[in-house]
Amino acid sequence: MKKFSAVLVGLAMVTALAACGKQPVEDITATKAAVEAAAGEGAAKYVAADYKKVNDELAAALAEVKVQDEKWFKNYDKAKQLLATAKTDAEALKVKTIAEKERLKQQSIADLAAAQAGVAAAKAELATAPKGKGTAADIAAMGADVAGLEAALAEIQPLIDSGEFMAASEKAVAINDKAAAIAAEVAAVKAKKKK
Amino acid sequence: MILQRIKTGLLFAALAALFGCSEPPVPPEVQLATSQEQDLWGAGASIYAPDEYQQYLSSLNAAKDILAREQACMAVLRNYSAVAALCQDVLKQGELIDIKIATARSVEATEIARAQLSVQKKIRMVRELVENAQDKRLAVRKLVQAEVRAAEAKKMASLGRGADARKRLDEAEKDLAAVVKVIRPLIQRYADRGQVSSWRRLADDAIAESRRNGSEVILVNKVDRQLTLFRNGTAVRSFSAGLGFNYLADKLYSGDRATPEGRYQIVRKIDRSRYYRALELDYPNQEDQRRFAQAKRAGLVPKNSDIGNKIQIHGGGRSGMTYGCVSLDNPAMEYLFAEVAIGTPVIIVGTVDHDNFLSSAVRNLN
Q: What is the band of B171 on the pLDDT scale with cuts at 50, 70, 90?
């Protein structure tokens, strides 16, 4: 009877240990999904460092799962904890990615609007420039420049549409700077003409 | 009883030693290698040393695998010496990668700086050419686009985005190539020694004739934008002159805004002109008519175009663009008008100097 009880206790212990040592498949799936969701929003592009951190966390958690997989008496508590952290960070990363993406998008839209206004101002300035002799060559050159800037402006919206917000902003700023320089040149030509 | 207690105490001590108290610490190299990997990634290892970085990551992961295996053992049996050795190796690999990244970045920065300089030099050269030549056809919109791309590249390079900067500079080079493609044919003949020699002969012959006959001759040099009055073969006065919008070309038809080239003569003196005073030339001469007819046959001029006429030397200001005439400041025009008579030869040439600024520009563009 005593012997039978000992076997029963042993079996119960093994069962209990085996139950504790079940691989956290759902946690793994959920964490991977959270990381993929962040990636889907463009985390690698817009918040690259944070994306790498979350990926490293996931890799560390999966390594811990692997360690426990190889053990006789498995304990996935630490792995679950690591997965939970990675999942939380991945979810936060998704939010951060969306916010950063939106911020860059709004910035690029604002930069485009500023560039459009800058080019329009240069064009208007050019339209009122004296057309007479002495300035015609300068005006012709600046006219070509303004036309060139208008053509360059058309390259910005496709960049925004494809999510290349930083490139869009950089182009817009460069165009706006050049437009301001042309407007200043036109003003100088006008002043020259007045003299 | 006491013996039993001692035995129990020893058993607990042994178990404690076995399961916890003697657990060796994880070697510090593991943390060092992990943070080194972060730094290498941040520095762009995957871009500047991709193969080495891949190898490095494999070594680091191997070390982490062994670490995990050791941590899976009972504490007393854990031995991290292999992990420490591997991590030390990883750290050494990382240091080499770090050096490679720094070198690659430095090379890249130098290349980008060189490319930027090259693009900026070309832009400056074309800008100066446009500014000095004052020919409307040289105003090409792609030039400003090259400038915009160069500015973008500068910004990208300052942010350490070398690959992006290089791409923009390549695009700027393409824009400039398009600009050069337009500009080169317009100025090519000013670098053509045969053409320049022909202009020179035309000018020399007219000046020699002036010397022989003791007469006046007017020489208009397009590149120098200068009109010179010769008497007895000697230059008497020179004036800055304005020319056609597209003066670099030889006039071919009405409305091309080019100033004709060749030997002409004054056929009419207009005392009251829209542009102060004017000296009308006998454009088109026979050579002009022959060229026009040839161009028309070849479809090189608009279908309904005619050859044009009324090319004048007139007043109104030297610093502008005309529809093909030669313009002078009014005081210069007044002087010239008084000094020349109907029949005075007027020689209009591109240049008489093989080393003119346009020939230099052609050389530079090449």
A: very high
